[in-house]
Amino acid sequence: MKRISKDKYYINIAVSVSSRSTCLKRQYGCVIVKDDEIIATGYNGAARGEPNCCDIYEKCPRLNAEHNSGNYGDCAAVHAEQNAMLSASRNRMLGATLYLAGKEYIEGKGFAEMTECTPCPICERMIRNAGIARVVGPQNVE
Q: Which residue in 81, 104, 107, 142 is the catalytic one?
């Protein structure tokens, strides 16, 4: 029996976490791991107390917007990475690994698992500031 790698294990958990997302365009899940221990998880969705897109829209108002443009002024979502980092202390995140995975909506087909996930420019800066040493997406895992 061959076991899956630790990276694949944590990416699979990130995919599972993405199932809680309330986004109609892309559902992301994030897992922050340090010393082989999960210290935080997060998924993308509306800020606490705000209405969820999946509850008020049939289709994402940003469905045709460019991906990772950095312009999210018309998006109510807090990103998965941001939600995970808000749940952990900086001390715990120093030197940690962040796993990011997700599913993308495809017109007429529903959600399909993404083969590549990268943080947006804002999340990249937050990840560096948090002291996270490594970011892993499905494209980095065998």
A: 81
Check whether 3 has a pLDDT greater than 80.
yes
Please tell me whether residue 69 adopts helix, strand or coil conformation. Answer: coil
Ramachandran bin of 95, using left for φ above 0, alpha for ψ from -120 to 50, beta for the remaining angles:
left
**pLDDT at 59 exceeding the cut of 90:** no
Is 116 a residue of the active site? no
Q: Which long-range contacts (CB under 8 A, 24 or more apart) does 108-112 make?
A: 111/27
Going by C-alpha positions, the residue among 36, 20, 34 that lies closest to residue 89 is 34
Query: Residue 133, SS3?
Result: coil
